[in-house]
Amino acid sequence: MFCSHKRRRKIRTKDSISYPIPSNHTPELPPENDAPLCSTCSSLDLHAILHDGVPKEHAIPIGHLTDILNKSNQCGLCNLVAIVIRRAWNLDKLPDIDISDITCALYAMECGYPNIPDYISPVLRDICHRLHIQTFDRPRDVTAAMVAAQSNLLLDIQLLGEDASKLGGRKNFMAGGLVRIDGSTSVNTSMVRAPPSCRFVALSYLWGGTGEEYWTTRANIKQRRAQGGLDVSVLPSTILDTIQLVRQLGERYLWIDALCIVQDDPKDKAVQIGVMELIYGTSAFTIFAAGGTSAHDPLPGIRPGTRDPKQQITKIQGLHLAVPLILPREAIASSAWDTRGWTYQELMLSRRRIFLTPHHVHFECGEDIWSEDVIAERINLPWASHPLKYGGAGGFTSVRAPPEWNSSTYMGHYMSIIGKYTQRRLTMESDILNAVTALINAMAKGFKLAGGNPGQAFRFGMPIVDLELALVWQPTSNTSCVRRATGDGNMTLWPSWSWAAWRGAVQYSEVSLFVDAQNGGVSPWITQSLVEQWHV
C-alpha cells in the first residue's frame, strides 16, 4: 500500500459518494454583445422556447443543413448548430456523405422534473428545457460511425447555468463541478502494509511498456518501506500527478500496481492477482487515467498545460448557449485506456470512479454521474430524468450475492463480460486469464458458484457449473483462429474448448438467431442439462 504521510483533510461529499474533481476548464464567456443572426434565426424567441418548451412534433424548421453550414460564419445560432452536427456526424472525415436533402428544426425538451402535477409540489414544477436539433433523415454511414464511437445520438445545445434565472428558474441549478487543484507534488511517501479496514484509493492506468526504473522489486522493497523511502523522482508523470490529486483530495493511502506488487516476485504477483477484486472492489474510489498512452503521460487537468478543452459559447438574445462537451462514455471510448485488457476488470469492479480524459473529468457511481459540463438544470434529479443516465462508462459488477430470484442470471453477465473483454488487447497474450481473474472471482463469490470457490467454479476461464452454456462461444467475424500459448516456457496449449485458448475476440450469439419468428417460432430456453456434472 502506498502511503502519503500527510494529515487527512475532511472533504464534504454529496451523499457520501461524490468527491471534488480537478478542473482547469473554466468556460470563457464571449463578449457581452449578442452574436448576429440570420433572418431565420432572428425570428426565433429563444426565451419563450427555453421557458415554455417546444414539443418534438412541433419542431420549428430552420432550413436545409447545407444552408446552415454556409451561414455559420455570419449567424451565431447557425454556427452552434453547425458545430454540433459537424462534430457529432464527423463530417470532416466523411466528405462524400450526401446531405443535400437534409433539413433541420429546433425543439426544446423538458429536463429535470417533467410532468409533475401541481398538487404534489409547486417547487418541483420549476423545470428547464434543453434545446435540441432535429434532422430529418441521417445518413446510414453517419449513424454507424456514431454508434461505434458511442456518441450522443441526440443533438443538443445547452444553456449555461448562470442564465437559468433569466428564464424564471431558481438558483439551485447544476452548473458543473469546477474545482481547481493546485499544490506541490513533493510529499513524504513510503510503501506500507495496509492497516486493517483502512480507506484507500486505487489507480487504473496504462503502463505503455516496461518500467523497470520505477517498479517495486525485491532489490528496493526494503528501502521503499522506510518512511520517505520512495524516491518520487523516478516515478512517471501519471503516477506523480495521481499522488498530487490524491493528496489534494485529502486521502492518505493509494494502491498502484507497479509500486504495490513486487514485479520480479512471481509468488507476490500471484497473490495480488488473486485478490484484485478486493482491491478495486473495496477502494473508496478509483482514479482512471484515460488521457494518454503510457504511464509517462500526464494526468489531464492536474497541472497547467496538460489539457486544452474547448467549448464554443455564444451569447444570443442575452442567453449564453454552449456546444456540449462530448459524453463521458465517448471520451472513454476514444482513449487508448479503453483498448487494454487489464483495465477492463479495474473498471467493472470499481464502485466509484473518477475519469480524467483530455476532454473533461467526470465522476460516476451506481447512484449518480457528475460531469464538468455546464448546464442549467436542477440538481437532485430523479435517475430516470438524469441527462447523463446512459452517458457514463456503466457496467458495475456486484460483489454481493444477488437475490434468490436473480441467482441464475450470472451466465448472461458472464457472456457479456467475455465478449467485451476479448475485444481488448494485451501486451502479454499469456495474461489472458490473469487479466480477468478478478472478475471471475467476484462472480464466483457473489453468485455463490461452487460454494463461492472460484477455483472449483471456473477452469480456464469457463464456468464448470454451466459448462454446456459456456461452450457455445464463437469467434467474431474476421477473427483468425490461432491457438494461444500459455507463456509458461513449455508452449503448452490451453484446452481448445476454452475461449482463452484462441487469439482474438469471441462472442456468445443468442439462440434466438436461429428461430424463425415469422412462422411462429419462439426462442428456446434450456431448462435441464443432459450432463449432471462436468469433469475436467
UniProtKB/TrEMBL annotation:
<feature type="domain" description="Heterokaryon incompatibility">
    <location>
        <begin position="200"/>
        <end position="346"/>
    </location>
</feature>
<dbReference type="Pfam" id="PF06985">
    <property type="entry name" value="HET"/>
</dbReference>
<dbReference type="InterPro" id="IPR010730">
    <property type="entry name" value="HET"/>
</dbReference>
<protein>
    <submittedName>
        <fullName>Heterokaryon incompatibility protein-domain-containing protein</fullName>
    </submittedName>
</protein>
